[in-house]
Amino acid sequence: MHTRRLAALTRPGFMSLRKSRFFSETATDDIRGRLLSEAKTAMKNKNSFTSTTIRSVLSEVYAADKASPPKVSSPAITSIIRKATLQRIQSAAKFASASRPDLAEKERREADILSALIPPFLAESEIDGVLRDVLAQHKPEDDPGRALGKVLGAFYTKVDKSTVDAHLVKSRAEALLSNHN
């Protein structure tokens, strides 16, 4: 068995696979590698629905790669997946209101597949902890809008935008600022 694996690793096509754009060696491409792995698994299992869904997102990732010369980062890929998931959820709602339950179910299934691929958002308690640290480091402004802008700016230097719900961060920052004054 070990010699079969070694033979597979040394065959001529393997090295070209390693140098292709689909092979990722860095930890920053973790989500990209996971997408590729899930797509390959779905294709091997002949699950065309899942493979088509994942490949549609991969095509958006590749388009983003072409738009900016270096590969897009993992947070950007996570944002692409989140956006695709949200689009499918919204489409499902529109199909349901248009009395098309078959299409609504298809969109919901695609959203479920994609949502399983993205990491969860930070918990509200973790967001509050970072916001409290930011408030402790920055003196409050007299203008509440300006203070909110500075707090959010400092928050996003510490936390990646793709790991939090922006609406929740803004509401928590406003609440903490009103309590801080």
From TrEMBL:
User: What's the main place this protein lives?
Assistant: mitochondrion
Which InterPro entries does this UniProt record tie to the protein? Asn/Gln_tRNA_amidoTrase-B-like, YqeY/Aim41, YqeY/Aim41_N
Q: Which domain of life is it from?
A: Eukaryota
Q: Which organism is it from?
A: Piloderma croceum (strain F 1598)
Q: Name one GO molecular function term.
A: carbon-nitrogen ligase activity, with glutamine as amido-N-donor
Entry keyword Nucleus: no
Q: What compartments host this protein? A: Mitochondrion
Q: Which GO CC annotations does the UniProt entry carry?
A: mitochondrion
Q: Which UniProt keywords apply?
A: Mitochondrion
Query: One matching Pfam family, short form?
Result: YqeY
Question: Which family is it part of?
Answer: Belongs to the AIM41 family.
Q: Per the record's keyword annotation, is Mitochondrion included, yes or no? A: yes
What is this protein's name? Answer: Altered inheritance of mitochondria protein 41
